[in-house]
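--- STAGE predict ---
source: upstream dedup step, 1 unique chain passed
mode: sequence only
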Amino acid sequence: MNAGAALTLYVMAAVTVAAIVLAVVPLPASARRLPEAIGMAGIVATLAITVTQWGERQVAFSGELRIDRFGLLMTWVIMIAALATLLLGWGEPAAAGRRREFTGLVLAAATGMMLTVMSGDLITLFIGIELLSVSLYILCAMEVARERSLESGLKYLITGSIGTALLVYGFALLYGVTGTTSLAGIAARLDSVGGLASDPLLIAAIVLIVVALGFKASAVPFHMWTPDVYEGAPTPVTAFMGTGTKAAAMGAFLLLFTGATSQASGDWRGLIGALAVATMVVGNVGALLQDNVKRMLAWSSIAQAGYLLIGVAVGTTAGAEALIYYLFAYVAMTLAAFAIVILREREVEDGDQLAAMAGYGRARPWAGVVMTLAMVSLAGFPPFAGFVGKFLLFGSAVDAGMAWLAIVGAVASVISVVYYLRVVIVMWGTPADGRSNERRLRVPPSVATVAVAGAVAIVALAIAAQPMLDLCADAARALIIP
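--- STAGE serialize ---
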């Protein structure tokens, strides 16, 4: 069984249970931060274990789990997002920060994300996706006194349920075609049986799985829930959904398509490519119309999903390498931006509105610099990490004979410059509106830590791109099932 290979999952599961139990046990005032402290310690321990496990692939529970360089590196993306979420929620005046179960739910979602990217079987993959989804349904509706938070949780539950039904049906058809739920078994079956890769039942399975994962990744036309849910959810939860969930969804895409069903790539490359095009175009156009920064970042996350899907559509290890690198960059950019939004929300009632950012760069220059770095990197300006990631994604598309994807991506990036730079111009070039309800609070150290770390990562990932790319290349090669 080699159950010891799954040590990272044991640690995360243990700290999740501990945090949930502590949320319902009466604690003295001096220990009210104990769940967060245990959660952060568990995340750090998990990251340390992944370093020791870096090497050849191990399998656990008869192949149900695959602990390889892909799963371990994707775990870093997920753990960084989870740690940042706990820091952003630290001392949050809204219910998300006051309710002690917040930590346990974040850890449960992160455990589901880890299980997803380490899956070696369709059943394990489904369990991971459902664990992260159910946890996020609750997190979105955590501010029970606020109607929009409840609405956010309900909308996410309904659309997520549709995605779950489609995913189960797609997996059932895939099992019916191949006779196995093992990802390695599926790959071997498609490789050994002639004509199976073009079986109509397999094509139907692929379509259903793409649609289901499209819901999770906020891909067009399955994105309809994203703007409302992102805007209504507590902002730390929104940041987590925009980073960790995206990483888990893209990890599932890579496991299933670049890995298990690569022999049938002729059936799905065009489908996912078309999905990427629609997502890039609609996401960027939708973001142009927004005056709410959280809502704009929601549409931006839709567009970013389109760029990431290029790495899936090309179906090569080069595409997977570019996707994984861009995930790290995207997480850094998104967390930095949301940290500044959270800081502003604590100062004014409608701090997520674009108008609330007027003159904020002058009032808090460090915050203005962080937000500027996040925006210009998301837009793809050189020499930052966002530019490097897009360059690699577009290059992988050209090398795979899908230059049309790179062209659409480049045009979409040009469109995005308008709404990203609008935030920068408002922060630096527009005088403050002198709001009577503004309260200039001391900057929370936890929020400042996430913001500054994100800004540093945006620059560092560009400067030290090659060492990071070497790690990503190792992870991409681990997707190929022998």
